[in-house]
Every structure is written in structure tokens, then in C-alpha cells.
Amino acid sequence: MLSLQIDSASQEKNITVLERAILDQEGPAKVAHTRLETRTHRPNVELCRDVAQYRLIKEVDEITHNVTRLKETLAQAQVELQGLNRRQLALQEEIQVKENTIYIDQVLSMSMETVSMPHGDQQEERKTKG
């Protein structure tokens, strides 16, 4: 159970890091997209495919690829966390069932002792305890 809690905490931290990494990519992505868009729609300038244009396209593609990969990793981490949470709930339920079973066994064994002793034996037992 402790191991599951540690794994869950670790996975939650991992998810937070991934979400932050995705957010950190938004700024550079917007800048690269804006520069590329501005470059392709310059008034009174003929369109050309030069080194700068290719670098901008490559930069946009790389950022898009990185964000996609981060989102996939984030989705996988969230699925794993859900699995850990389900496993923890199942273990807690199992523990509760076992605790209830032990309690019932104890109550039944005490009532069986009370029923199995005749009245005379119970009085003698009380005298010896008292």
C-alpha cells in the first residue's frame, strides 16, 4: 500500500512536470508561428524559399513534434496514475473486507463460546475469574 502511495505521488509529480513542459513550449511555438506567418505574408515582397524560411519551418515542425510527444507522454502518465488509483482503491476495499471478516469471526467465536457453555459452567468460570 505504501509503495502504491509513493508511486502515485511520483506519477503526480511527473504529470505536473509534463504539463509545465507543454506550457513552456507555447511561447516559442507562438513566436515561431508568428515569424513564419509574417514572413509568408509580407506586402510588396515576393515569396522566396531561402535558408531563413526553411529554418523557421523546421523550428515550427520541431516544436509541434515536441509538444505532440509531451502530450502523448502526459496522456500515458495520466492513464498510469488512474491505474494506480484503481489499484489503491481495490486494496483498500480488500483490507476493509478482511477487517470485517475478522470482526465477524471474533463476534461469532465469542457468541459460540457463550452458547456452548452451560449455565453452571459460566457461573463457575465467573467465580474463578472473580
UniProtKB/TrEMBL annotation:
It is found in: Cytoplasm, Cytoskeleton, Cilium axoneme; Cytoplasm, Cytoskeleton, Flagellum axoneme. Residues 60-101 form a coiled coil. Its main location: cytoplasm. It holds the Pfam family Tektin. One of its GO terms (biological process) is flagellated sperm motility. InterPro entries: Tektin-like, Tektins. It comes from the Eukaryota. Keywords: Cell projection, Cilium, Coiled coil, Cytoplasm, Cytoskeleton, Flagellum. Microtubule inner protein (MIP) part of the dynein-decorated doublet microtubules (DMTs) in cilia and flagellar axoneme. Forms filamentous polymers in the walls of ciliary and flagellar microtubules. Required for normal sperm mobility. Belongs to the tektin family. This is Tektin. It comes from Eschrichtius robustus (California gray whale). The lineage of its organism: Eukaryota, Metazoa, Chordata, Craniata, Vertebrata.
